[in-house]
Amino acid sequence: MKKNSSMKRINVPTWFLFIAGTALRLFYIIITSVGERQHDVASFGSSDGHYGYIEYIMNHGVVPDFDPSTVFQFAHPPLHHMLCAGWLKLMTGVFGVDYSDAVESLQFLTLLYSVGLMYVCYRIFRYLKLEGVPLYVATAVVCFHPTFVFLSGSLNNDMLSVFLMALAILFALKWYRDDRWRDLIVSALACGLAVMTKLSAVFVAVPVGILLLVVLVRKIREHQVQRGITQMAVFAGISLPIGLWFPIYNAVRWDLPLFFVYKLKEGIPQFLGNESTWDRLFNFSPSKFSSVYEQWLSYTDAGPVSYNESNPLIVALKNSMFGEYIKDDTFEKIPAINGFCTVLFYVGATLALIAFVFMIRNLIRDRSERCFERLALGVFFLAMMIGYYVTAFRYPFVCTMDFRYIPLTVPVGAAFLGMGMNMCIKTENSGKNTKKIHPNNVFMYVICALVAVFCLCSTVMFIGLKFSV
Predict the structure, then answer these.
(1) Which run of H or E residues covers position 305?
(2) What is the mean pLDDT of the chain?
(3) Is 437 left (phi over 0), alpha (psi -120 to 50) or beta?
(4) Cα–Cα distance between 469 and 33 in angstroms, integer?
């Protein structure tokens, strides 16, 4: 009991990070309407896009009863859209809120998911034995990372799927360590609901599946084969029907592929099919970093303007910080913000590199009893990145490299950043002469300084959006 109570206790620095992260998200949705910086939503009343999908369910009370591939975005699993439709019904029908105001209030749902993600990631960090400064560093990265602030105001299905995926991983870790049926069932429900929100959430099966297999092997060795197989069957019996009923229905009823993907037309300005694979993978020329903002090719009467980003890694770094909608001219009224954004980009890229090095080092050197937990997260990161690159080349368009398809690489990276700092602390404490300044100690201070600058620049950028053009 004492162990559980200590796990749930949140100290003052962590509360400060939660409050600051929540305030930043709340500020963002207040200054951002449902028509700004959205993805694939169209507009309310347009009968397509995510907004049209929400209104269809609200007006008809059912999911589409026609081939959903014929209407843009209607082939997505319906959980997010059902919740939004229910919210609109509640606001307008029960509380008498004007419809336009009710529509704006939908962002409180995505805000709730984003705030919930902060807490879930914190709990994951605690289960990975992060404490003190490493815990604060990892939590701060999640609380202030621009991706999750942007998603807190984005009314497509990304934020809910990300929250549910993280929840599934948290309870899978709890079950892996404590072997309680409650944790297994919650993880299975979260997995199924995540896929019922967005099909790409199926990637959560990677870390959860690794933990399930490790436990099954452990049960076999302990001569508890029946219990191990029963647990696997219960997990599959809960998660698979919830997650796959909608795509299976569409496959049977409308002959759609199980993982149907909308395809853009070749020849549009953002098409990258004419770019060489070598150039897309390995072109890191200085011209690609002439601006820290993601570039899209456009045309004027005078000819082409800018260029299309084509290197997936560069796009991931840029898009994770600024999305698709913050551009070189966004802060024309207050150009000083561009300086903060430049610092944000390079500090963020540096932290990502350090976290990746820590991840490789940890996975190679870790031989503890908890190595499979870290292995699950490391393989999850690898699976997300492989899927990201495969999608980028299978569907060669700038928009398919959006970082919102792999946002959970952030908390995974933050976790390994914290675990790497833990390794530095252990190495430092193992030294015989504690009076000297250990290099690992200096490195710890550098990481803390980088994270502090990252949080500051992220906050300034979002404040600057209030006064942007």
Answers:
(1) strand 303-305
(2) 92
(3) beta
(4) 14
